[in-house]
């Protein structure tokens, strides 16, 4: 039976080998990074609680996901990291830090699409699909098409071995996947029932409405975690106040979508959150 110390040794040796070749590494537990330690909890260290961006953190542990990835053998073999390797289930690496991009293909359909549309390159088999690895970094984006994610800067990928084939330069067709904008959502104009009896809307003053939209923008912008939930709750609040009186215009909705997207929400998620809020309120 393989003992935990043997597994740790395997992970540690693989990590040191990768680091020696210039690939920043980090340990994974159950396929996800280690969470913030007590020293870094609640963003006290100045990092990001969602581990999406690197912060000015001096924590010696692998507690900031991809931002903790390192090629320093002294760090990788330190006591703090050794304790993490004892609990690790896999080795991960930061593709962007190694000047690489991983096209993560989740299923057979995605692989078929890649073979028909992407240049051949180094390929690594995964549990359900394949990683296609290209030379060169780019922005990481999830769900660029069904079953296809891009992992490069500000992301991590599991190390599953060297794979097969010869690595090729990052092609424009892959870069284009990240910059291609989805079709804008239709529900930009909110059509709601008129007031019963045709009464005058008591909210139809520029100052009242402007203050409400500005507060909603601020609420989304200030979110430090749970952004998707914050966006939904904010949309719900706006619609509960203005959704039945015809106050909202294309420009108001576009402003809300814009601040949500600036926090990392996709246009599709914005549209879904807006639709779900309307459905909840029956407007």
How would you characterize this protein structure?
With 283 residues, the chain is an alpha+beta fold. Helices cover 38% and strands 14% of the residues. The protein has 9 helices and 10 strands. It has helices at 4-20, 73-76, 79-87, 108-117, 172-179, 206-221, 227-242, 250-262, 267-281, and strands at residues 25-29, 32-33, 90-93, 100-105, 122-125, 130-135, 141-145, 148-151, 157-158, 168-169. The strands form 2 sheets. Strands 4, 5, 6, 7, 8 and 10 form a 6-stranded mixed sheet that branches. Strands 2-1-3-9 form a 4-stranded antiparallel sheet. A hairpin with a 2-residue loop joins β7 and β8. The longest helix is centred in the N-terminal third of the chain and has 17 residues, at 4-20. It is globular and about 65 Å long. The N and C termini lie far apart (61 Å). Mean pLDDT is 81; it is low at 48-55 and 182-200.
Outline the secondary-structure elements.
Elements: H1 4-20, E1 25-29, E2 32-33, H2 73-76, H3 79-87, E3 90-93, E4 100-105, H4 108-117, E5 122-125, E6 130-135, E7 141-145, E8 148-151, E9 157-158, E10 168-169, H5 172-179, H6 206-221, H7 227-242, H8 250-262, H9 267-281
Parallel strand pairs: 6-10
Antiparallel strand pairs: 1-2, 1-3, 3-9, 4-6, 4-8, 5-6, 7-8
List the keywords.
single chain; 283 residues; alpha+beta; 6-stranded mixed beta sheet; 4-stranded antiparallel beta sheet
């Amino acid at each position: 039976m393989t003992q935990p110390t043997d597994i740790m040794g395997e992970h540690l040796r693989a990590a040191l080998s990768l680091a020696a070749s210039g690939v920043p590494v980090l340990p994974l537990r159950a396929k996800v990074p280690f969470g913030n330690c007590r020293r870094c909890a609640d963003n006290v260290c100045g990092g990001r609680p969602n581990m999406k961006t690197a912060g000015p953190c001096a924590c010696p542990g692998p507690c900031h996901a991809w931002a903790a990835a390192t090629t320093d053998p002294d760090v990788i073999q330190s006591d703090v990291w050794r304790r993490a390797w004892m609990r690790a289930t896999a080795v991960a690496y930061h593709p962007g830090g190694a000047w690489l991009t991983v096209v993560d293909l989740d299923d057979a359909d995605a692989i078929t699409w890649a073979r028909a549309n992407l240049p051949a390159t180094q390929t690594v088999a995964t549990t359900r699909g394949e990683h296609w690895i290209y030379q060169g970094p780019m922005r990481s984006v999830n769900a660029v098409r069904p079953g296809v994610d891009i992992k490069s800067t500000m992301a991590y990928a599991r190390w599953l071995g060297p794979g097969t084939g010869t690595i090729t330069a990052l092609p424009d067709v892959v870069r284009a996947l990240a910059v291609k904008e989805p079709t804008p959502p239709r529900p930009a104009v909110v059509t709601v029932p008129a007031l019963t009896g045709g009464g005058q809307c008591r909210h139809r003053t520029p100052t009242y409405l402007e203050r409400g939209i500005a507060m909603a923008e601020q609420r989304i912008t200030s979110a430090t975690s749970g952004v998707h939930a914050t966006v939904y709750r904010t949309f719900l609040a706006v619609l509960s106040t203005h959704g039945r009186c015809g106050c909202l215009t294309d420009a108001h909705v576009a402003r809300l979508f814009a601040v949500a997207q600036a926090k990392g929400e996709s246009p599709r998620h914005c549209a879904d959150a807006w639709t779900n809020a309307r459905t909840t309120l029956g407007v």
